[in-house]
Amino acid sequence: MIHLQGVSKRYGMNGVTVTALDSVSLHVAPGEFVVVLGPSGSGKTTLLNLIGALDTPTEGSIRVNGVELSALSQPERFKFRRETVSFVFQTFNLFPSLTALENVEFALDLARNGHQPRAHAAEILASVGLAERMAHFPHELSGGEQQRVAIARALATGNPILLADEPTGELDFHTGVQILDLLEQQAENGKTVLVVTHNREISRMADRVIELSSGRIIRDGVPQGGKVHVRELSW
Length: 235
Description:
Helix content: 25-40%
Distance between the termini: 31 Å
Number of strands: 10
Strand order of the largest sheet: 6-7-8-3-9-10
Oligomer: single chain
Structural class: alpha/beta
Shape: globular
Order of helices and strands: EEEHEEHEHHHEHEHEE
Radius of gyration: 18 Å
Number of helices: 7
Strand content: 25-35%
């Protein structure tokens, strides 16, 4: 489903070239739950942005479902993001002037997936435990509730790939477990899930762990000590 070959990404900053990713090659199979692990500045978010067609590589090939992303025009990239990938950001990226229900409705309208937007949005919000918070605006919700709205919005598209960038970074332990539980369920239901984190404990819930350092893959394999269910984590 996701195939990277020799991918590098360099940025020019104040006359200095910064290498965010350096000759990265990997393959992610459909339905795989992958945690991308590494410290700040290791290239994790850059990798996610490239897979999600939010950015383009300096070198190398990125193919998703057989489509070469670098060959896409801007309208085609937008269509790819609308139909293939969904994002969950650490900062939530909710529309502040829309209620939780309206935020999810907006995603459904954008996806054009044939559902009745309001009824389906309500169903998705109920599935993430927000049946009683649908009419609330983002500033009226806790951090964990906002993140669940963000996940509901991502799920609303029905896209086969879910990309989550530090989805529990600002959350308390209990709320973080709830969020990770939702992501784990999506992988069990067949979605391909990539979670970026600096937290090694979270990596134990993955089918596979890819560890980055200075833009290079330094480890790619099963979690150390074996995979565990999210509710067995203790970070």
